[in-house]
Structures are given as structure tokens and as C-alpha cells.
Amino acid sequence: MSASTLDAPATPETAPRSKDWRASIALGVIALISLVVFGFGSASGADTTFVVARSTDFFEVPGFTLPSQLAAILLSVVGLALAGYTAFQANQFRKVGIWVPVVYGIAIMGALLTWAGAGRDATSIQLTGLLTSSLFLAVPLVFGSLAGTLCERSGIINIAIEGQLLAGAFLAALVGSAVGNAYAGLIAAPIAGALVGLLLAIFATKYWVNQIVVGVVLNVLVVGLTSFFFSTVMSDNPDLNRPLGLASLPIPGLSGIPVIGPVLFNQNLLVYILYVVVIVLQIMLFRSRWGLRVRAVGEHPKAADTVGIKVNRTRVRNTVLGGAVAGLGGAFFTVASGLAFGKEMTAGKGYIALAAMILGRWSPKGALAAALLFGFADALRVQLGIIGSSIPSQFLAMTPYLATIFAVAGLVGHSRPPAAEGIPYKK
Amino acid sequence: MSDQTTATEAPQQERPGRASTVLREILSSSTLVVVMAVVASLLIGGVLIVLVDEGVQEAAGYFFSRPGDTFTAIFDELGAAYSAMFTGAVLNLDADTFAQTIRPFTQTLTMATPLIFAGLGLGIGFRAGMFNIGAQGQLLIGATVGAYIGFTWDLPWGLHLLVAILGCLVGGAFWGFIPGILKARTGAHEVIVTIMLNYVALNLVAWLLTFDAFQREGSNNPISPIVAETAQYPKILGSQFNLHLGFLFALACAFGVWWLMERSTLGFELRAVGANANAARTAGMNVTRATVLVMVIAGALAGLAGSAQVLGTEKVLTTATAGSLGFDAITVALLGRSRPLGTVLAAILFGGLRASGPTLQVQAGLPVDIVFVIQALIVLFIAAPPLVRSMFRLPAPAIEKEVAA
């Protein structure tokens, strides 16, 4: 990642700042496509029904029915307006706040949903269900991208998120089944992830092996090891791999609020841990002495060393901690979902988490937002599959990856990794 | 690195005897490290095999009354595993005919073919300072184009194969061009872009396979028709062996890559960019062009690896065509130290490991996955020579070469 910054010719201080139109152009094009395809593409006169609240809530919010074409056009126009606002701000050399992409995303997704649900009287768009499964599917992504953020902020590239998730999933299932309690699995999962993190840290800081190489190889190693034990130990003793589940723990009072309640406050323990971890890490990384030191090590290790920060010790600790966080996320696949362990069951989620980390610009809250976006894309894929939409599910599955490519290519904002990332620190 | 150099230079100045110098050179050579890394990985694999074996566990239950039983069980299990590996990958000594005896080795070479192609491409990338994780996607897109030409077009024998191979090459090159141009123009990191493109390619192929044009007639499964005979690589050892012309083509490509990297101006330029992009730019080399070119060549070679799959071994296109080849090829290129000859040898080693999988399963009752463990361990050890040296108490060389990038 450092190579790209080195490659760029040094800009003289006196040169005028160039106006960055890329973001506004990208947003504008997508909004236009939305207007044409979803807006004018919806059958005029057709209606879309949204179901909001469930009957278990305090009070029932009635589902609402919108004229599809009008709603989709309006939402697309909102998207276009936001693109225009971005262009106006770019003209003034200003950057737009985080609310712009969020509102933009909601508007375009709303247009898409309205279009997809148009004229289907038999089915309706389950808004609450969609949001609940978005959050649920985002859980491993959030943990994974937090792990990536922790490691990369200290200067270690963590490609092994996939392996850490898988190791966590495996050990959670094994220990949880052996003890007979899903919560035991929740305790075991971070240990597995931390071990993978430790291997990564040792090879990266002691042997100066290229961190991307170690990451890729560790992924292969964990896939091999877990599959091997799955086919031997676990298949010989089915008692060691049982489907366990964490019970939902509705928070009294809060869980009864329509929409927000079932989505946010009627989840299992792992999701509540997720809220805590995101908030704690966001504050710790950017508001604490520890966070400042970690970031210093990741940006300029020599300077950090000069003021007495132990560079490699910081990196090892962060990588192990990151591994533990990812391992905890791995518990999602087995004990938190109520499934038994299966071969390669993480299925590339670790790489999507890596993408979420980049899209979230190496910060916990950004990682959360990006992971939720990817989780939403996944949930949407499932929902559209149920109502039988004409959008091929493969395209929705592709969105997170394409979004990441656009992000790293600088089309949507600019993502800059920590400066010393991937470079071994040699005194 | 530098402190190690000074530490080991000192004893050399004492002018030791000739014999000990030679011995020292052998002991500190990187080839020995490679051999020892393979040995260590096989040993650790053996430990895992023993750990999960029920016979050993049973005997270990009464270890203190009859310890001999435990060791017999361990040796039996290990003997079964290693002999199954040998039988599956090298020679089948129990076979009746000569053809059956050498069949495992030809199978190893067949398995090695796509790994050679893709490994060569990744090796060029590593030497030019580009970390291409995208062989998986490049292979898949190449295979898709080649297979489509193979089962749709109707061309005379010879020409059809050539056009299909060309299709694989172009498909892979295109998928490699995308990260190349993004890196050159916007500075987007190739590791991230290639990883993402792998998944885009997988979903793209899954989508294409839902169309009638790509589906086998009368089938709703995502599997393509069989590639026409005229577009298949001919079998070079007769129909009883799977080894096809693709293997010889891969060897030819290895020679071509060697010539490109060691003897041509372009190769020198690519290596210079990999060694120090700023110095290369100062020397008047076109770094942008080199970046794009490296990814295109690597993609083309990965596409050819796809041709070994769809025009040679499997003859159909599915979403599983790429398997784990792309990631295995990374380990092959690393093990081969990004050199063509090393890549070929490493590909044959890993091809052998893959080929021994079924035998391992049938004869020794072990899951194929142990092969992946051994493979990953080999690369981890190779990547950290000091680790292997300290494990086997080998002396450190005067100058430690840095592995991979």
C-alpha cells in the first residue's frame, strides 16, 4: 500500500488544489441509472406494499402501500440531488459529511425495493425482517473488519481474517459441543483467532516474511486443519459437533419499539458484544493514549520508537487482539447461528470483511457502516430471491466486491491506508 | 538483514579448511532449506495423522502397561500414510502392468500443469513487485472464454484448439488488465482489487451458467457442455493416461518466461521496476506500462492454466473449475522462488500432493485436507529460512536472501 504513495509524484506546495469530481460523477451516474431503470422502469399504476411492524410489538404500525413509479422516481431524484450537492461542495474544495452517502444509499436502495416489489400483490417487502437479517449477516463482517482495523492501524496487514473467522467458528463448535453450552463456545472462539493472529505476528515481526504471503498461507493452513479435524475427529464423534444456538435476549422495554426494537434489541449476546466492541474500539483508537500509540506505530514506526514506544511489541499485541476479535466473529457461523461446523463454512466472508475495513477507512465506525451495507446487500439478495425478482442474485452478491474496487480506485472518496502498513520494522 | 551479515562474516575470515567450507556452503544453501522445509512439513503432517488415528489412541490408552503397542500403532499409521502418498503420486509398485505402475506419476504431471502456468504468471508478478492474488479469477475468466469457444464453435482440428487456447489467454489477460490499469492510473492496491475480482469472476461465471448458451442441453445444473474433441489438448501418452499436450506447452511457457525475464530488455525492465520503482522511473523506464504489462502477462498465463482445466483435464466449465488452483499457484510461485525452473519443480511437488489425495483417502482412510495442511506448512517454512535453520541447527548463510517481494 505504501508503494502507491511512493509512486505518486510529489506535489509542489504552491500547486493549486485540483477539484475532485469523481465522487459526484459516480453518485450522479448511479442515481441516473436508478431513475431510468427503477423509476421509469416500474409499471405505472402498480403498487408496492411494505410491511413494517410485527404484531409482537407494543403497537402495530400498519404496512403502507405506495404507487411504485412515483415513489421510485422521487427517491432517485433525492439521489440526484445529493449527487448535485456533492458536486457543489467539491467545487468549493469541501468534503461532504458521512450522512450524504448514507442518505444516498437509503434512497437508491428504496428505489430498488419499490421497483422490485412493484405489482406483486401476493407478496410484500418485509422491512423489519430485511433490516434484522442485514444486521445479523453483518455480524462476522463487523468483527472481521474490526480485526483488520486493529492490525493495520499498527502496521500489520491482516489477510488472514478469513482464517481467523474459520478457526473461531471451528473451536466455538468444538468447545461448545464438548461442554454442552453455546456460551462456552463464545469464550473459546477468540482463543482460536488469537492463535492465528499470533502466528501472523511472529512471522511478520520476527522473520520479516511478507505479511500478505503469511496471511494467504495461514488461510490455506486453517482451511486444511479445520477440514482435516472435521473429517476425522468430528465425524468420528458427532457429539463434538452439534448445532447449538445462542438464545435471543430481548432487552425489556427497548425491544418493544416498532422496527428499531426487533432489529437492534432482540438479538443474541454476540450482537450485544458487537455493539460494545465497536464503541469501545472507536473511543480507544482515537481518544486514548493507547490508540495514539498504536496509530503512531502504524504511520511512522521510527518516530514512535524514538519516543520510546515498543514498535514490534505493539504490533504483536494488536495482531493477537485483532485475531481474537475476528475469532469471536467466527463464533457467529456456528454457535450464534445454531449450526454445526462445516468445511470452509466462512465462504470468503473474511475477504468481504477486509473490503469493509477499506471502505470504512480503517476506523471502527466506518467498518460498522460498511459491514452493515454489505450485510444489507446480502439480506436483499435473500429477500429478492424470495419474492422472485428479475435481478440475478449473482449481481447482488457481486456488489460488495465492486463497491470495494470503486473505493480503492478512488472513485468514491479516497481511502488511504496507514503509511507503514506491511513494512517490517527493522532497527 | 545487515546485522546477520556482519555476524556471519566474522568466522569466515578465520580461513577454515577447504572441506569444511564446502560443507558449510551445502548446509547454508537455500536448497537445503527447501528440502528441510518439505521434510519438516511432512513430519508435522505425520504428527497430525497420528493424533487423530483411532488405533494409536486405543494403544495409547494402555501406554504404560505396553508402550510398544503405541509405537507399533504409530509406525503402522505413518507407514500407511506415507506409502499411500508415494503410491498415489509417484509409482504404484503393486500394479501388474508397466502402464499402471507409472500412472501415478503421469497423474502428478497432469495435476501440475495448471499450477505451472499460473505459478509462472504469479512469479513474474512477484519479481516485478506486484502481488497478484487474482490468479483464481483470471483462470476462471480465461477458462470461460476458452470453454465457450470449445463447445460452441465448429472449427477444423488443430485450428479449433489454437483458437480456444487463444481465447483462454485473452480472457485471463483481460481480467489481469483491470487491476493493472487501476494500479497504474489510480494507485489502487492490486492485492485488494485482485481479491475482489476473484469473487466478481466467480459470480459472473455462476450467472453465465444460468443461460442456455452455457448450459448442457436438457440440464438445469450450472454445468457447461463437454468441449468438442477438436478443441481438447491431445493426450501425449495414449488414451490410458490423462497427461495431455498442455503439460509440454506449460514447459515451453516456462522456458519462454525464463527467456523473457533473464534475456530480454523487457524482462530487465520488469525486474528493475520490481527492485526499485523510483530508480527505474529515474532511469527512464515506463513504470506505468510495466505495471499493466506484468498484470496482463500474469493474467494470460493464469488463463492458460484455465485452458489446462477446461481443454485438458476436466473438459467442462463449472463454477468449481478454478477450485483452489489460484491460491495453490501462489504457494507454488513462492516455493519456486519465482524462478521458472523452481516453479516447475514446485508445481510437480504440489501436483504430487494433490494427486496423492484420492489414494490417501482410499488406502489410509485419511481426508484429502491433510494435503492442504502440508502445503501451507511448506510455504510457511520456506518463507522463514531462519525458522527452518534453527529447527535443524543449520548454519546461517553469509547473505540472507529475502523471499517474495
How is this fold's topology laid out?
The complex is a heterodimer of chains A (427) and B (405).
Chain A: H1 2-7, H2 22-39, E1 47-51, E2 64-67, H3 68-91, H4 99-116, E3 125-126, H5 127-153, H6 161-179, H7 182-205, H8 211-236, H9 260-264, H10 269-287, H11 289-299, H12 301-306, H13 311-330, H14 332-336, H15 349-359, H16 364-387, H17 393-408
Parallel strand pairs in A: 1-3
Antiparallel strand pairs in A: 1-2
Chain B: H1 2-12, H2 18-27, H3 30-52, H4 54-61, H5 67-89, H6 98-127, H7 135-152, H8 159-186, H9 190-208, H10 245-263, H11 265-275, H12 277-282, H13 287-313, H14 325-335, H15 340-363, H16 370-383, H17 385-392
Helix pairs in contact in B: 3-16, 3-17, 4-5, 5-15, 6-10, 6-11, 6-13, 6-14, 6-15, 7-8, 7-9, 7-13, 7-14, 8-9, 8-13, 10-11, 10-15, 11-13, 14-15, 14-16
Structure description:
With 427 residues, chain A is mainly alpha-helical. Chain A is built from 17 helices and three strands. Chain A folds into two domains: 19-123, no CATH class; 131-369, no CATH class. Chain A has helices spanning 2-7, 22-39, 68-91, 99-116, 127-153, 161-179, 182-205, 211-236, 260-264, 269-287, 289-299, 301-306, 311-330, 332-336, 349-359, 364-387, 393-408, and strands at residues 47-51, 64-67, 125-126. In chain A, strands 2-1-3 form a three-stranded mixed sheet. Chain A is globular, with a radius of gyration of 23 Å. In chain B, 72% of the residues lie in helices and 0% in strands. Chain B has 17 helices and no strands. Chain B has helices at 2-12, 18-27, 30-52, 54-61, 67-89, 98-127, 135-152, 159-186, 190-208, 245-263, 265-275, 277-282, 287-313, 325-335, 340-363, 370-383, 385-392. The longest helix of chain B is centred in the first third of the chain and has 30 residues, at 98-127. The model of chain B is unreliable at 1-14 (pLDDT under 50). At the A-B interface, helix 1, helix 8, helix 15 and helix 17 of A face helix 8, helix 9, helix 14 and helix 16 of B.
